[in-house]
């Protein structure tokens, strides 16, 4: 603005006192042109800043035409019905659904960034869906699909030792106990567990996670928040000799026996993991669980010409 006022004052001074040649039509034209150029410099950047700062403009530009973008496409339906039914708040279904979709996209984005996916795009698809697109040539697309598709609900439950193996096989368990499968087929693990339904701890209580190698096997170590550490110490002190199930998406990945109170607020999850499985579990714990389950609706590849191949 200072430059602009300086030019205007100089022009007025010239009109009163300058020689006739400076007041000619050419001089006035040059003056008008100079003022217009200064105005352009001042106005255009402001307009561009306003456009860039509009909510969502940058992200929308990045995903424009996402359905036709070259790469591997995964479209998930978000199972929002249970969330809508269980919500105690008197909020419009559309607002709750929008919130679930936003949180789902945020969790999926954190998971993809955690495994250093080189190039990806993610955006809403329809009313309650999400589309993820990877650049062509991405490594291990099936592994990425598995990582994204899991809800990531990680919880701790006590095992119900009252249930006999025969009752477990027939599903006859007392109230407050549920039958959960083992996460993997292993000669050292039962195929099913009688698990107390009460959630003792969850991933919400965990603050630090890392993959380590113990005895030549990948494991996932974790550390609780201060409040979580205190509750975990009480839980383990009160249940010495009992098994504590670690459950991911409704399947038991490990059920160690509590030998002594665990007072340090840290623990290790071991379950015969491969390196990728341990990495994926760590990513899920760091990224948080999805607000609702996902169901893969569409998987296809789009080539540079825009032609698609795949399954729906």
From TrEMBL:
One of its GO terms (biological process) is protein transport. GO terms for cellular component: plasma membrane. Pfam families: SecD_1st (PF21760), SecDF_P1_head (PF22599). InterPro entries: SecD/SecF_arch_bac, SecD_1st, SecDF_P1_head. Keywords: Cell membrane, Membrane, Protein transport, Translocation, Transmembrane, Transmembrane helix, Transport. The chain crosses the membrane at residues 30-48. Residues 190-292 form the SecDF P1 head subdomain domain. Residues 102-160 form the Protein translocase subunit SecDF P1 domain. Coiled coil: none annotated. This is Preprotein translocase subunit SecD. It comes from Rhodospira trueperi. The lineage of its organism: Bacteria, Pseudomonadati, Pseudomonadota, Alphaproteobacteria, Rhodospirillales.
């Amino acid at each position: 603005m200072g430059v602009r006022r300086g030019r205007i004052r100089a022009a007025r001074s010239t009109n009163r006192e300058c020689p006739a040649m400076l007041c000619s039509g050419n001089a006035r034209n040059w003056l008008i042109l100079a003022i217009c150029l200064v105005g352009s410099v001042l106005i255009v950047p402001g307009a561009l800043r306003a456009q860039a700062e509009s909510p969502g403009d940058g992200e929308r530009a990045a995903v424009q035409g996402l359905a036709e973008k070259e790469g591997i496409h995964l479209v998930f339906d978000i199972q929002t019905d249970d969330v809508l039914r269980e919500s105690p708040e008197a909020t419009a279904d559309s607002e709750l659904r929008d919130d679930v979709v936003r949180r789902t996209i945020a969790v999926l984005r954190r998971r993809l960034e955690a495994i250093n996916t080189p190039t990806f795009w993610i955006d809403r698809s329809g009313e309650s869906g999400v589309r993820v697109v990877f650049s062509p040539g991405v490594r291990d697309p099936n592994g990425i699909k598995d990582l994204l598709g899991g809800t990531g609900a990680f919880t701790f439950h006590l095992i119900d030792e009252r249930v006999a193996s025969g009752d477990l096989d027939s599903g006859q368990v007392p109230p407050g106990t549920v039958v959960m499968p083992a996460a993997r087929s292993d000669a050292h693990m039962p195929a099913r567990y009688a698990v107390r339904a009460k959630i003792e701890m969850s991933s919400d209580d965990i603050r630090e996670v890392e993959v380590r190698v113990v005895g030549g096997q990948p494991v996932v170590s974790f550390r609780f928040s201060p409040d979580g550490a205190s509750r975990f110490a009480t839980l383990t002190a009160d249940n010495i000799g009992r098994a504590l199930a670690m459950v991911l998406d409704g399947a038991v990945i490990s059920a160690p026996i509590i030998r002594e109170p665990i007072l340090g607020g840290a623990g290790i999850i071991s379950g015969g993991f491969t390196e990728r499985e341990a990495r994926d579990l760590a990513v899920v714990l760091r990224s948080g669980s999805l607000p609702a389950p996902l169901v893969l609706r569409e998987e296809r590849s789009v080539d540079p010409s825009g032609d698609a191949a795949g399954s729906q």
